[in-house]
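User: Please fill in residues for this 234-position structure.
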């Protein structure tokens, strides 16, 4: 699909903030997206209909739209229904990402949802995967690209990419948009060297709360604690 050609070999920046985070809201995310565009991003990934619409207008870049939905048990699914996908497409998303995990907690059957989005909305479908099996199943059903969005590793200070999973997904022959745990420029370079179509970086660029926490976790891992006497107000 032509829209994928526009993002090939480029950096995609994910501009998202959770409801409880200080930068939550379409205008703040649009400003973040504008900064990413000025910095050289080739596309933006964002969560929410208003966010998609405003970011598209402000940046003019291709937008990967998602809609995170949380159920009463606190379980999250990305773009679980056709109605969610349609709203994203109407807002201006050229690519719609869908949660295709085998254990996604809710949502319409993927065998029905994925073809319907591609056929009726005229957008590219990106499969957000956790495992190689997820990617293989998405390929069987039919998608335009896959991403190891949920398939990242963790360490003492946060997350890191799972390059072994990424490499196996690339072997499937579909465009792979690498995502999940990217914090260092060299990690992005490595992903491209493995054969990634493009790479998404989110928290490391657009979430100062998470960036700060990562630095603090590094200090804790090194057993360095702040001087309470200096940091406590009189």
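Assistant: Residues filled in for all 234 positions:
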């Amino acid at each position: 699909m032509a829209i994928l050609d526009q993002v090939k070999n480029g950096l995609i920046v994910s501009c998202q903030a959770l409801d409880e985070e200080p930068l939550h809201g379409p205008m703040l995310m649009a400003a973040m997206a504008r900064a990413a565009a000025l910095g050289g991003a080739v596309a933006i990934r964002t969560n929410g209909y208003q966010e998609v619409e405003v970011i598209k207008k402000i940046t003019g870049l291709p937008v990967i739209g998602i809609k995170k939905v949380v159920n009463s048990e606190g379980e999250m699914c990305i773009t679980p229904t056709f109605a969610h996908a349609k709203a994203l497409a109407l807002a201006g998303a050229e690519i719609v990402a869908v949660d295709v995990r085998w254990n996604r907690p809710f949502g319409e059957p993927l065998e029905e949802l994925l073809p319907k989005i591609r056929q009726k909305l005229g957008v590219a479908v990106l499969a957000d995967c956790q495992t190689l099996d997820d990617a293989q199943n998405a390929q069987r059903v039919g998608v335009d690209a896959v991403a190891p969005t949920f398939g990242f590793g963790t360490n003492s200070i946060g997350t890191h990419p799972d390059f072994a999973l990424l490499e196996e997904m690339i072997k499937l022959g579909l465009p792979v948009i690498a995502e999940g745990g990217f914090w260092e420029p060299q990690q992005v370079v490595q992903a491209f060297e493995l054969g990634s179509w493009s790479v998404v970086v989110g928290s490391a660029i657009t979430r100062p709360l998470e960036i700060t926490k990562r630095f603090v976790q590094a200090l804790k891992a090194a057993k360095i604690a702040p001087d309470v006497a200096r940091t406590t107000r009189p």
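For context: The mean pLDDT is 95.
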